[in-house]
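Side project, low priority. Logging it here so it doesn't get lost.
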Amino acid sequence: MEKNREEQGQTPQQKVPIEERKLTPGEKAGVTSALLMFFGVGMIMGGSASGKMGIFYGGTAIFTIGAGIALYLLFKYSPKNSDKWEE
């Protein structure tokens, strides 16, 4: 683990072991948006079941922030058109 890739005989094209892999900023933002939406839905359900509208509206705000992050990631990292690639 302590050796660098050249000493291990790896080239940059080879797969990196899972222990050495770092999350990209896009992946971190995706996980964050999913967690925000998860907690937001829980607050919406809990607030509506208990009749506390403050919790309900707080959950809608948190869900909206998570959905906004998800939409940003969707448009920033949209799938590439396969017709543009040369073979």
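Brief comment: The CA atoms of residues 72 and 78 lie 10 Å apart.
Revisit when time allows.
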